[in-house]
Amino acid sequence: MRDEITRFFKSGWFSTLTSVDGEFLLRKICEEVQGCSHPGCPELVEYGERFCEKHQKEENKRYEKYDRDPAVRRRYGRAWKRIRDSYAAVHPLCELCLEKGIYTKTEEIHHKLPLSEGGTHDRSNLIALCKPCHARIHAERGDRWHNRTSKNSNKKKSGA
User: Fold this and answer.
1) Alpha-carbon distance 135 to 143, whole Å?
2) Which of 75, 94, 71, 72 is nearest to 83 (CA)?
3) What is the largest CA-CA distance in the chain?
4) What is the C-alpha separation between 156 and 136, in angstroms, rounded?
C-alpha cells in the first residue's frame, strides 16, 4: 500500500481533485501516512513514525553517539541482550495492546523502572511493547525528545 500511496503523491494528479470524493480520499490517505521528518526527504512513512527506514537508522546512530548518556550504554551489554531476547520469546505480543484486545508483535523490551532510577533487568521490571506503545511511554515521561532542550541549556550554563 505504501508504494501505491507514494506513486499517488508523486504523480501530482491529486492536486487537481476538487470533488467531495477526491477530498475525502485525500484526507483518508493523509491520516495513514506522513512525510519523513528528515529535511528534504520525500519518502512517506506510516502515521506515528518520524523517519523513513534510512533516516531512522541515521537518527538512532546520532542519538546513540551524541544524546545518550555513556553510562547507559555500559548497562546494556551482552547479558542484557540475552535477557531481552529470552523475555521477547516468552512475550511475543505487546503487553499493553494485548490488554486492549489488540494483537501487536513485540518490538521493544522496556524497563518499567529505568536502570538510571535504580531499576534492574529482573523480569518483574520488564514489559514487552510495540514501538508505538514504547514511544508513547517515553513521550509521557519526557525522556528522549522532550528534554533535549533542557539538557542542552544545562550544558551551556555549566560550560559558561
Assistant:
1) 10
2) 75
3) 59
4) 29
- pLDDT per residue rounded down to tens, the chain (160 residues): 556 656 665 665 555 555 555 556 656 666 677 788 888 888 888 777 888 889 988 988 888 777 766 766 667 778 888 999 999 999 999 999 999 999 999 999 999 998 888 889 999 999 999 999 998 998 888 776 544 444 444 444 444 3
Other C-beta atoms within 10 Å of 74: how many? 9
User: CA torsion angle for 54, 58, 61, 63 (degrees, to 10)?
Assistant: -120
DSSP sequence for 112-156: SS-GGGT--S-GGGEEEE-HHHHHHHHHHHT-SSTTHHHHHHHHH
For the chain, what is the radius of gyration of the CA atoms?
A: 20
Strands (E) located in the chain: 33-35, 44-46, 108-111, 126-129
CA distance 80 to 93: 19
Q: How many CB atoms lie within 10 A of CB 85?
A: 10
Task: State the residue for C-alpha cell 523517519.
Answer: 51
Which residue type sits at 52? C
Return the SS3 of 147. coil
| pTM value surpassing 0.85 | no
